Every structure is written in structure tokens, then in C-alpha cells.
Amino acid sequence: YSEKITTRITENQSIGDVHMIRLAARFDLLNKAENVTVTSITFDNRTIKSAVLTPNTMSTASEWYEKNKEYQVNVTGEPEKGNEWNGHIYTYENHSSEGSVMIPELTISYYEGDNSTDIKTHVVKLIDPNSTAGTTMPVKRNNLYRIVLTKATKLDFDLQVLDWNAEEAEIEHPDVPLNLPKNVQDSLNRQLLVYDLFTEFDVNELDLTNAKVKSFYTSLPEVDTDVSELSTFITYKSLKDNNLLEDGALITDNSGNEYRVPTAGELQLITTAYSGFLQSPVKDNYIYHVSWGAYTTGSSSMYSAIEFEEFVYLKNNANLTPNSSVDVSEESEFGFKGKSILKRGRITDTIYANTNGQKIELTPGDITYQVCPIYGIRFKGTKQYSAYKWESLATNGDRSRRYISVKIKALPEDADITIDDIVDNHSYWNDEDCIEIILATRGRGNPYANPKRIDHIDWCCLLSSSSVDSSNFYLLFGTPYDCAVNSAPSTNYYKLRLVKVKASEKEE
User: Fold this and answer.
1) Residues 388-408: pLDDT tens digits?
2) CA 246, CA 261: separation in Å to the nearest integer?
3) Which of 16, 210, 251, 370 is the most exposed, having the fewest neighbouring CB atoms within 10 Å of its CB?
4) What single string gives the DSSP state of each residue in 126-139?
5) What are phi and psi of 386, to 5 degrees?
6) Distance CA 257, CA 499 (A)
């Protein structure tokens, strides 16, 4: 029976009661077996897709099932009230019948007493207790299946099928799928600090005296080495001399929108800091920042997917140095710290080292770089927990001109995702699910050369408001070989990307 109700904006109408049901089933473990310690549970034929859209049917296709999914457990039995495993197992419905190769089974691994090296197993088969023929018990959505281990003379179990709501069994540790529904992913992305933080493009013209943006770039660059472009490059010193770096200093545009210069910590939300800068010390000579790869000719560097700790300091001190004296163990407006890990993907291109904008053909003996995406899982243990993909791509089909794409996807705090889950996983990096920041490679202004010129047009260099010392400052530095928050002299000429502070009332 179903009823169709049409609602109208001009009138109120009740649609009655709406009852919702979980798509998942849940398995718990309660250990009442004296002197028995459970070490793991292996679920064979765990269902990983729901048939809710095809009522009363259950596909037997093998891709619907997961073989031998293992869960780590450490629970010693308590005969009186039982010791409950803190974790849970989630699965979808399974109506496989007797004789099917897809019948769900749970293998419990355990040891007795203190003999932890003598691991034994016990298989829990789902049999309908009301059937004299030993018919398989179906796993149904919204049910809670509680395995109660007992031991009189030998290990045994009871299987309780309970009402999930009545048992007040809240979901605590669900198995989070890798690809989330778009609306869920969008909602998670919006909670990140980096979401809609920066302007889409770099500043093209800036009136320093009046703190006003005259224009932004509107596209990726063509080959723009003309010296007339030098007037669009800015120094850290000029921003400081015009009081545009202090806390509260604002820059506006002709529409009344308000911006400010980002801190080094905010740029670090785009990419990692250079190894040893603003993070835990480098160990074993490994690289802990985004590095596309070693030269194909020339020196090489060690790089390995090893977890490290990132410190992000979002505020500056009065002298404009990063305020690293604050305790960021608890996330706050001053910053946070979290565990991160990086790994290279497959090589996608080989490019030559471009010098001063001169376009040359690749010939034997030239220094070249192997270009590959870099993947990261960053800030684990914080609200900024995210997956990253950094990639150097050809600009408008010109392989000699590069731009850097940074894709970011927020991760649920309870997601058990590894770096290998996202490396070269094209379906995961769907453009519609990602925050994407484009870093244009516009080079470095060099007004001191004779003749004046723009150097290194394959570099991306963005200014921050954070000072290293009296002569140097922090900037985002992207090249054909790496991309990191690094340092540079305060008198060098670079580009500027701004942080959005407030949109004009007209745009709101």
C-alpha cells in the first residue's frame, strides 16, 4: 500500500508519520567465556552493497560480498555480566540460502588462559533456531545480532537477534565507505578551514597606497615573460611598509569585498611545509613535503610514505612571526596539529628543467623531472582530517608551462582510510566531490637583472604575511620538483593570493 501526496507552497499539508529504517545490520560480541580472550573476528561473505532499491531480492553476484574481513579484538571473558567488545561489525542484508557459497560466517580467534601463542578458532554459523532442517538464518537490515560467548566444558555461543532501537545501540564505529554521497561529502568539505578561504586567482594589480585590488587574474597564464608584467609582482617588504600585514589589515576591491594577506599557516592548508619548517623534525633524511620526484639525471632524494606530525600555526605574533608558542594539542583559532602521510602516484609525464622562460626541445642530456601526482592524508586526529592530491599539469596544452592542481576531500573523523586507498584511485578523485585550488605558475619578478626579466616561469610563488626573521618571510613555493611552504628574501618579487574576509552586501 502506498499513498501519493502532493505538497504546494501556498498551503500546509500533513504527510503523516514518516518511519525510517536503517539499511545496515550490526553484529556485537559479548564474552562470558571464563579465561578466554578473543583476539580477532573474521567475517566471511560480509555484504557491502544494499539491495534496498530492489525489494525482496538479493543479488548473488560476488562483487556484492567481501571475503574474510578481519576485525581486531582484545576482550577477555567475564562469566557474570560479560565483557563487551567496544567495536561493532556492520553489514547489509544477506538472504543466501543453504548450499550457497555466500552464506555469512564469523570465525572467532581466541586463546585460553595466558597461552597467547596457542590461537584457536571457533566458527559462528547463522542457523535458524526455529528450523529443524538447520536452515540458514537471513541477515536482515535494522537488526542487531549479538554473539554471546559462553563456556561450560567447551566454548560455545548464543546468538541473540535484537531490536536495534530497543537495545539503544547507537552507531559508534561504522565502516565508512571510501566514496560518500555527494551531499554528505559537500557537507564535510564545508567544515574545513580551507573551504572557500582563498580567492580563485592571484592578484594582478594592487594599489599598495590605498590597499585596493585593481584587478585579479581571470585565467591560467599563457607564456607571459614580457617585462611589462614585472609591475604586477609584489615584495613582502612593500606590503609591510604599507602596513598590510598586521592583524586586522584589510584590502578591498572596487566592489567593496574585503580581503587580507594569508598567514604561513593558512598557506599550509594548501600544501605541506618544507621538511623541518613548522613541523616535527625530519628523520632519517626522508622528505616530508610534497615532492614530485627526483631528477632523471642529476641528484636524487629519499622519499617514503612515513607518518609525520604537522603543526599549523594560523596566527602571527606582533613581529609577524608565526605564533608557535601556543599549545595546539587542542584545535583552536591559533592552530592545530595532526598526523600526516604522503605517497607518490604513477609517473604521468617527463618534463625538462625550464630556465628563464626559454622554450627548448627535450634532448639527451637535459635535466628532466618525472612528474607524478602526490597523495596525502593530512591532519588525522583533528577536524581538518582530509585527503589531498597534488598534481603538476600542462597549462593550456603547453607542457613547458605548468600549473599545480590541489584537490582536497574532507574525511569523516572515524574513517579508517589508508594512503593506499586513495593513491591513483581515479574514481575517488571525482572533480565534483573535491575542493580544488589552482596554483598558477607565473614565475618570479627580477627587476635587478640586466635586462629586467621574469625568472623561472615554471614556478608558483605566493606571498604570506608571516616573517621568518628581519630579512626573510614565508611563502608558498611550487616548482617542477616540489611544492611547499618555504622561505625567501623579503625583497624578492612574487605573486599574491588573498584570503576572503567579507563579501560586499551587493554580492551577498
Assistant:
1) 999 988 887 777 678 899 999
2) 9
3) 16
4) -B-TT-TT-PBPPB
5) -150, 155
6) 11
